[in-house]
Amino acid sequence: MKAKSMETLINYAKNYGFVYQGSEIYGGLANTWDYGPLGVELKNNLKQAFWKRFVQESPYNVGLDSSILLNPNAWVASGHVGGFNDPLIDCKACQTRHRADHLIETYDPSVHADGMKINEMEAYIKDNHIPCPACGKHDFTTIRQFNLMFKTSQGVVDEQGLDLYLRPETAQGIFLDFKHVQRTSRLKVPFGIVQIGKSFRNEITPGNFIFRTREFEQMELEFFCKPGTEKTWFDYWKKESMQFLIDLNLHADNLTFEDHDASQLSHYSNMTTDIEYKYPFGFDELWGIASRTDYDLTQHQTHSETSLEYMDPVTNEKYIPYVVEPSLGVERLFLAVLNEAYTSETLESGEERINLNIHPALAPYKVAVLPLIKKHHKEEAEKVYRALSKHVMAVYDEAGKIGRRYRRQDAIGTPFAVTIDHDSLEDGTYTLRDKNTMEQTRLSLDEIIAHIEKRIKF
């Protein structure tokens, strides 16, 4: 499938009510985005699809909603206070700021700069005369580490407040509640805890629309297993994660596994892979899957002086479980789904026809209710709309010719349209149009509801 330009997707998202620039009437705030009437529905549908697959339908997993604000000692234990940093370098000529590892990897994609030490990156940039992307000069400052966590305080008086951080990931809240969840849910290893929630990272180089933002949502699974079995579960969740994306109608040719070699692994990981998607700017990370070993639970056990060991009820063996973590960004999935589904063609009249070929379960509206003639069919159409709205997200549209209204719904991915005409007033049947097949069928209201509910299941 031919990739769309990012500009096309940004304009489409704004014009149709998916994504707006944050605080735009005040000139905006860089890298903040608001999700409009269609965008919030799509986001919710993505999260619901994830929850259904990985919690509702999973025999292993349960859910959690932990606090965004954690005791600051949790971030000391996890290593975020001391080690969650970006290596920043400034161009002396034009004063632009860059990530040193990104400069190196852009210059030579075969180099894994995130594994380099500061002095090694500085030497590499100098020895290879890497230019500034903004001005082309070769004169940089030394590299400085910049912590990515947003800092805030708790308390009435600023000077006496407790320093806190907005969480940069949802995982740590899961680890802190590991024992509570295991005990109250009577779970036996292996089992997983799923969380969907906001995270915040003070990214220095955000960009590519909603791909990399400072405020974002994560859909994360922390899967706890016995040490020695993590490879089996790592492979299992790789397969499950890829299948989930394909079931959302992302094309397999636009997805690939990118396994990390030893030099790319985080210090706590013994296996990591990314599922990359072909965005308009090329393949990039959509879903990260990491085997985190027992690092997190061990760190929190040490710093909190609270046992986080698991007792096997059969063997009476005590151990700290290993963790396999699939972590997916809602916004990145949102962008992938839009890119995959958006199509356009130029009609003989010269008019552009946009079609959003989105999975029916993800479509913001499931059905549009269209009175053929407003004057004669409005009352009946409004009755049908109220009835359908009790079952699915519906939209009512009476403006313009029926063909134009169909095209408006095609452009936002509405899979079904119900048209009310003269016969509807006589026999209580309505025309149900299927966007994907273009088939039109006369059905009663009960039949329409049953048909739509069956077709939008994920």
Please supply descriptive tags for the structure shown above.
3 domains, 15 helices, Herpes Virus-1, 23 strands, Rossmann fold, globular, single chain, 34% helix, 458 residues
Quote the CATH topology of the largest domain: BirA Bifunctional Protein, domain 2
Number of DSSP helical runs: 15
What characterizes the major β-sheet? Answer: 7 strands, mixed
CATH homologous superfamily placement of the largest domain: Bira Bifunctional Protein, Domain 2
Average pLDDT taken over every residue = 93
Rg calculated over all Cα atoms: 26 Å
CATH level 1 class label of the largest domain: Alpha Beta
| Structural domain count | 3
Identify the strand order in the major beta sheet.
3-9-10-16-13-12-11
Low-confidence parts: none
Q: Summarize the amount of helix as a percent range.
A: 25-40%
CATH architectural designation of the largest domain:
2-Layer Sandwich
* Approximate shape: globular
Structural class by secondary-structure content: alpha+beta
Strand content: 25-35%
Distance between the termini: 23 Å
Descriptive account of the structure:
Helices cover 34% and strands 27% of the residues. The mean pLDDT is 93. The protein has 3 domains: 6-78 and 153-339, BirA Bifunctional Protein, domain 2, CATH 3.30.930.10; 85-147, 2-Layer Sandwich (Herpes Virus-1); 365-455, Anticodon-binding domain (Rossmann fold). The protein is globular, with a radius of gyration of 26 Å. The longest helix is centred in the first third of the chain and has 20 residues, at 37-56. The strands form 7 sheets. The chain has a 7-stranded mixed beta sheet. A 5-stranded mixed beta sheet has the order 20-19-21-22-23, sandwiched between helices. A 3-stranded antiparallel beta sheet has the order 5-4-6. The two termini are 23 Å apart. It has 458 residues and is an alpha+beta fold. Helix 3 crosses helix 10 (295-304).
